[in-house]
Structure formats: C-alpha cells, structure tokens
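Q: Convert this sequence to structure tokens.
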Amino acid sequence: MILEHLGKRPMIDPSARIAPNATICGAVTIGANTSVGFGAVIVAESGPVSIARDCVIMDTAVIRGTRGNPVGIGNCVMVGPRAYLSGCTVADEVFLATGATVFNGASIGRGAEVRINGLVHLRTRLPEGATVPINWVAVGDPAQILPPDKHDEIWAVQKPLDFPRYVFGVDRPPPGGSIMPQVMPRYAGFLRKAHTADRAV
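A:
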C-alpha cells in the first residue's frame, strides 16, 4: 500500500520492486532496482526516508524516519527480515541481518555488518567495515561492541546517551519510576492525529 502522509507521497523509481502488501508511507524515496519485500513497512512518520539504488529490504523489515533523524540508506544495502531501523544513517554496502536493530541518531559505516539480532544503539557511530556479532550490542561514539551479558558495561555507555530525552524529550525518571504514563498518551495522540488524513495513492 502506498500512502500519502502529511501531504507527501512516496517517490519510487519505476525499476524498483514493491511487494503488494508492503506499506510505503509519506516522504519516502526509493531508488532504482531496489526491492521491498512482503510485509515490509517504510514510513516517514515525522522525518523522511531515503533508500538508494540496488538495495534489498526483506520481508517484514520496518524502517521509520523520525523528527530530527531522517533515515538515509546508501547503495547496495541489505536490510534483513524483522530488522528495525529508526532515524538512522546507513552507508553503502552494509549488511543488516535478520532481526538487526538500529536506533535514532545512529550511523553505520560503509561495508559494516550487523549480524542476526545485533543492535546498534541510540547515537552510536559504527565505523566502516565493523561487525556486530550475533546478539551483540554496539553502543557509543566511537562504538564499543559488547556481548549481551555485559549489561553493566553497556549501560555505563548507554545511560549518558539519554534515550528518554533524545527520543521523547523527557527526563529519565528516578529509580523505580516510569516515563510511560507521561509519554505514551502524548505519543499515541500524535500518531492518531498525524495519520488521520493518510490516503492511498
């Protein structure tokens, strides 16, 4: 389904392949000979998405542009099934495997690999040619690449990156507190309002 969102329509090169049940919404640009698989979702929620040429966006991948963090994906990139990309930059010739996650403000250097269920955290800079192993976490600028059992080391780098402030504009709550009652009503309302006038094109 191709949707106009906030008055902006996707711009898709005629040579691109879009699966019939993929969803492309808003200010999305898709380049020549790029393939978007079944069930994939590419949405310019509050920021644009640009995918260059000769890319493969596999089935059920989700790519979301955000305010202040547009998505830019270079040439010859593979985004695996169940991958999730939000507000990030991906250089040419990157391999993002099944279940890879790349968060807001992150950048992936040319030829890097994020293997199955690997994660590149908020505001992290993964250098050219780097590899995030299966289930590992890249965090920080420059990135530290750590196994998932190193939670304390990951958190020591992740906490100052300040996910609540960077993504939702709120302070981190005290221990035992939650941002959810403050953030979720506002976010749900924003999404409802923003998508009310979406229409198929």
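The mean pLDDT is 96.
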